[in-house]
Amino acid sequence: MRKTSAGYDLKDLFIGSEGTLGVITRLTLRLHPLPEHVHTLRVFFPGVEEAAEASYRVMASGLPVARLELLDEFALKALNRHLGTGFPERPALFLEFHSSTREALEAESALALALVEEAGALEVEAAKTEEERRRQWEARHQAYWALVHLFPGHRFMITDTAVPLSRLPEMVRFAQGLLREMGLTGNILGHVGDGNFHTLIPVLPEDYPKAEAYAERLVEKALELGGTCTAEHGVGLRKRKFLPKEHGPALEWMRRLKALFDPEGLLNPGKVV
Amino acid sequence: MRKTSAGYDLKDLFIGSEGTLGVITRLTLRLHPLPEHVHTLRVFFPGVEEAAEASYRVMASGLPVARLELLDEFALKALNRHLGTGFPERPALFLEFHSSTREALEAESALALALVEEAGALEVEAAKTEEERRRQWEARHQAYWALVHLFPGHRFMITDTAVPLSRLPEMVRFAQGLLREMGLTGNILGHVGDGNFHTLIPVLPEDYPKAEAYAERLVEKALELGGTCTAEHGVGLRKRKFLPKEHGPALEWMRRLKALFDPEGLLNPGKVV
């Protein structure tokens, strides 16, 4: 059911616990209706900061956004080379709106356009066919593989911070500036409607420590802005060291929960807390 | 931030724990933008079952519903007497849609109208002014007090089950039939967009056990339909006995959580688990 207050919320305790509290043997999923009408856009900006500002404005407007993805110039260059596509090579937002009625969809898309133009959009392309729409999202999903193919023999660092939406432009500017400052190249892309983006950095194996230092500075900045060290990729081993700063005394309670559910430390040992 | 996977979800563990795991001394709230455009409707049906069916269809359509409240004939009679209002005295849905654009709002309201008419709506009234809108929701909020004023010297049983949306019409029919079968009178009203409604039953003090028996049978039916014994009012003392059936072996883990956070049993003792 959609609402209950019968006892403690064990479900959300297990979600994101990375197998450290128990083994999930059966899941019940809630189904959502497929949208009747879909509108898919690509909007291009002079810089990533304008793109981040536009995504903040779109989210703050209360528009029912279904997808809102940032791709920087470098990501689009890599995609054009890997897939043979012809996307403008500028920082972009890929957006999608879902609605129950065509009229609502059109009105909402028009408002979104006005908002991104106010934030400095240079160019807008709408997907005219289902095929074009499919290709747009296929491209987004290929962003990682495009880099992998363009940088054979490299290792890849993928960062995963999130910050409150209002701090997103500052965070994106910091991430891009730090790449330049540290002499790294990398993609910035991600689910900016959630305040979450990733920097994908190809490095030669001997330069990996530099990429690690970058990732660490990004986490510190995210925490400083009231964000999180990991939005969706999880803690695993490498992000354990940031939890004391992010959670303070709550971390001790997380450790006690781990000890309660897994007193012998058998479940995904060494991870998370 | 809107998204994090850094460690275990303590926030949702505390939400709904009724003060049994700890004392909340500080809260950070997420703000949502006020809607730009609002459309408020009252829709009247021949029976509560049709009203429940309509609410299921509206929710399943994916429409962005902001409020969806059921009030039965008895509730509207009580409100008209208590407030001097002139609502049709038939089972009703009170609905509200929020949107960022007027065009979207109009299109969505039109679709909602078509859906409720398909489900058997007899009459639709739209709030034409902010004042009328305010009065409609004020009436909804007065539903409990209207009963209290009409039944001096009575005690009031308030049930609080929720079921999956697709089972809502069956659940509402059961709740109303059981009132008749047990010779009780009562309001059926609530947040049917969540599959949740309340039956408000005025009884003379000596008849209270009968109302308790009614409430118990309603919970049994809700659990049979995959629902919950309490959607939002909480477990407290009276619903503890239903938790073994609702949660099975998970209840033992809830008890262990209670013992972990409150080994001496000082926090809201005796409640929930």
CATH class of the largest domain in chain A: Alpha Beta
- The CATH topology label of the largest domain in chain A is Alpha-Beta Plaits
Query: How many angstroms separate the termini of chain A?
Result: 31 Å
CATH architecture of the largest domain in chain A: 2-Layer Sandwich
Counted by DSSP, the helix tally of chain A is 10
Largest sheet descriptor of chain A: 8 strands, antiparallel
> What is the count of distinct domains of chain A?
2
Low-confidence stretches of chain A: none
Into which percentage range does the β-strand content of chain A fall? 15-25%
| Overall SS class of chain A | alpha+beta
Biggest interface, chains and residue tallies? A-B, 72 and 72 residues
Number of strands of chain A: 8
Tell the overall outline of chain A: globular
Mean pLDDT of chain A: 95
Oligomer status: homodimer
Order of helices and strands of chain A: HEHEHEHEHHEEHEEHHH
Q: Rg of chain A from C-alpha positions?
A: 20 Å
